[in-house]
Amino acid sequence: MLADREVALRLASNIDVDRKLVGEPERVKIISFRGGYHGLHFGGMSACGGDAWRRTYEPMMPGFINCEWPNLYRPPFDGLSPERLVELCAGLLEREINYQQPDTIAAIIAEPIQGAGGVNVPPASWFPKVRELCDRYKILLIADEVITGLGRAGTLFGSRLWTTKPDIMSMAKGVTSGYIPFGATLINQRMANAWDAAGPRAVVMHGYTYSGHPVGCAAGLAAINIAERENLAENARTVGEYFLQKLAAVRDKHEVIGDIRGRGLMIAVELVKNRKTREPFSPLDRYPGEISNLCVSSGVMLRTIVNKFIISPPLIFTRAHVDEVVDVFDRALTRHPYKPD
Ligand SMILES: Cc1ncc(COP(=O)(O)O)c(C=O)c1O
Questions:
Q1: Rounded distance between C-alpha atoms, residue 77 and residue 130, angstroms
Q2: Is 56 exposed, middle or buried (0-12, 13-18, 19+ CB in 10 A)?
Q3: Which is nearest to 267 in space by CA: 284, 280, 248, 249?
Q4: 172 CB less than 6 Å from ligand 1?
Q5: H-helix or E-strand spanning residue 258
Q6: Which ligand 1 atom lies nearest to the CA of residue 36?
């Protein structure tokens, strides 16, 4: 539901945390990250950090700025340890904040783990650093928890992986377990207080035909109850660890697998033409699609994004399910090995 991010972006550029509402009306810019995905409505798309999502509709909305993300497999700068990479990306982020003028920036929006961009798990020190910069410059932090919300990454919210508290969270998919289209925007107490104190001036000119739909709310409450009762986040964590171990063994057998990464039941397998150079397959290469088709013919659907398979099964997945998926994938690669031209 696109409404959750649209609300988040609007709230962030509407409210000033310290001087109550509209105390700093120039705080309107939004910073996001390369590789980030926030939906295809104009607000979200303007924050997206990938050509494919933006190209057709450029120019995007003004005031959206993209900064470097500490991508560990395809880092923006080579040869750095994860800690150095974080320092460098955080340094560039701070430089950009200062260049833009801190009092013009409303919020930084980020996924706790980049999903559609390729399941890019940041180093553990990244989000605490981003939070620190937000606090230093009075910028709000929006966590786009559309994928990570409600257990997928092995914690109830993805932000908890990094012990970072966002000011705003947007959620959708997992909030109703996907059974009913529904999204939610959550704000922290600090924002709620500023809102209350602002009184009648605090109008969020925002609404959709189906906003606050009772069926969505009921489905959300039911899904949250089940997720807590059945401890689905913990299941995602343990089964996800097992999944990554099993895939690591498959990687050892097939040179074409460049990287395996993820957290909980949010996993990516990246194929490469050359493991050493990490040369990626292009959208014109047929090999990844052929592997995907072979898997489908054996009953396993892997979401294929050019050279990556994104694996996000239901949170009730078991080790037996993992064994089956990994076995089908392994057999497909064995039956149809990659042969460079
Ligand atoms: C992190 C994230 N944000 C936003 C979206 C887009 O959500 P919607 O299609 O409801 O706009 C997605 C969809 O995959 C997503 O993964």
A1: 19
A2: exposed
A3: 248
A4: yes
A5: strand 257-263
A6: 1
Say if ligand 1 is within 6 A of residue 6 CB.
Answer: no
pLDDT at site 14? 61
Chain-centre distance for alpha carbon 95: 24
Give per-10-residue mean pLDDT for the chain (341 aa): 75 57 76 97 93 90 96 96 98 98 95 97 98 96 97 97 96 94 92 78 76 94 96 98 98 98 98 97 96 98 95 97 98 96 76
Which bin fits 299, alpha (ψ -120 to 50), beta or left (φ > 0)?
left
Residues 159, 142: Cα–Cα separation, whole Å: 10
Residue indicated by tokens 């982020």: 93
The ligand 1 atom nearest the CA atom of 114: 1
b/e 184-212 (16+ beta carbons within 10 angstroms → b): bbbbeeebeebbeebeeeeeeeeeeeeee
Nearest atom in ligand 1 to 115's CA: 16
Name residue 306's beta-bridge partners: none
Whether 145 lines ligand 1, by a CB cut-off of 6 Å, is no
Distance in angstroms (rounded) separating the CA atoms of residues 66 and 307: 23
CA atoms within 13 A on the CB side of 213: 15
Q: Report the predicted TM-score, pTM, of the whole model to 2 decimal places.
A: 0.95
* Separation between Cα atoms, residue 3 and residue 45, nearest integer Å: 13
- Residue ID of nearest Cα to ligand 1 atom 1: 146
Going by alpha carbons, the residue nearest to atom 6 of ligand 1 is 39
Task: Find where tokens 């993992």 sit.
Answer: 322
Q: How far apart are CA 290 and CA 69, in angstroms?
A: 31
Count of alpha carbons within 13 Å of 240, Cβ hemisphere only?
Answer: 25
The gap between the terminal CA atoms of the chain, to the nearest Å, is 43
37 lines ligand 1 (CB under 6 A): yes
Q: What local confidence, expressed as pLDDT, does residue 20 receive?
A: 46
* Choice from 7, 53, 121, 147 to test ligand 1 binding pocket (greatest atom count within 8 A of CB): 147
